[in-house]
Design goal:
mainly beta, four-stranded antiparallel sheet, 6 helices, 30 strands, 34% strand, globular
Length: 500
Amino acid sequence: MTKRPAEESEGQGAPLKAGDRPIQTGNATDAGPFEDEFDDEFESDDEILEAGVDGRPDEEREAEEKRDAMDMDQKTFIPGRDKLAAGESLSPDTSAYELLHNFTTTWPCLSFDIVPDQLGTNRKAYPATLYAVAGTQAESKKVNQNELMVMKLSGLSRMDRKRIDGESDNDDDDDDDNDEENADPILETKSIPLPSTTNRIRARQYPQQNASRLPITQTATMLENSNVLIHDVTPQLTSFDSPGTIITPQQSNPIATLKMHRTEGYAIDWSPHVPQGKLLTGDNDGKMFITTCTDGGKWTPDTRPFLGHQSSVEDIQWSPSERNVFASASSDGTVKVWDVRSKTHKPAISVQVSETDVNVISWSRQTTHLLATGADDGRWAVWDLRQWKGSSDKVSTSQPTPVASFSFHKEQITSIEWHPTDDSIMAVAAGDNTLTLWDLSVELDDEESKDTAGIQDVPPQLLFLHYMEMIKECHWHPQIPGCVVGTGGSGFGILKTISV
């Protein structure tokens, strides 16, 4: 291939040699004016500053961002009183929570109980772990899909405070330290078939003879078909932390099926004073039975019920301090106190606490003369049992007054429970889709109670309000301070607020 000789450029004499540079022979002004690419856009430095980061004035950009942003109503919304408009939804203020998780199951579980574990008391480390049992409510056409669910929830991380507060974290060491705390939650379940829908379920534990082994955990489940099933769920609980454990079909069978009730019921409670097992149940006919486990492991119900209510027994609880005493709540509006040693099986005290159904009761374990009640009209109250007088099944003629009473909720109270270690804190669930926390140590003041934080008719004792659709039951976790678990038609919610 031949080489092409270098050609002379127009106005240039000869090709340049290596190292030579052209010498400008004309005047510099002949090159023409310098052209600024921004000259047409901004006339002055002041205009450049006014235009902001994207070439537009800050006011114009902010106005557009405001138009494009979601229209969020900042006023306080009170479920049960305020109504959502079409297209509106509620969003929790995550800065008010230390822990907040939700999960759903195949079928709704309208009753559950928390199972104590061996992970320690007064736990504050994260991620948290808890164990629970629950019974499902499958559709009537799929009743054979009902089950008793034994659950382990782990990896329950606390809220990311830095993300909530809008802070950035460039410290890699801190990020590594928080990886475990911010783990994803894990739900593990073991299923035990049930022949009917669960109305209510309660669990109990008692130690084994070999103290090195896990305690025995039993559940009592009141079914819609009126039967009461007792299960030993210790194998299921053990399997969560013992990989490879095989659960036989026999281990899922009930250890007892109680058939003394003729109608379904919701009232059920284990005695905290009888390690071998003593169960109290009540039904819609107003009948209550005690079932005791004998030394041979056989469960034997009393053939003679406790009678006195004029309507269904809605809830029942043993006294936390008196092994022979229990209280019952009824849709006849009364709460009755009973002594099981009475040969007549009649109540010792009967008090009319509401003009509507009394749905739930809770006996304080810290101050055992205090009993809380929740009624169908949305009112809940706290009573001093030392003021209750009466005899037989007659309602007390000297009507006592509650030491505290609140009508904040406008729908039925579905669950109520004292804090396990603080007798001034209450958790209340209601049909207005709310779970509320209350601090009874705040003194009642008529003026304050009319207006709290600029909101009318909100008592100062109301500590926290959590929105949860169709909530039916709530329980405090006895080993994680301030942790509350709720369940309902929308699933489970696990929360701990910055207030408790």
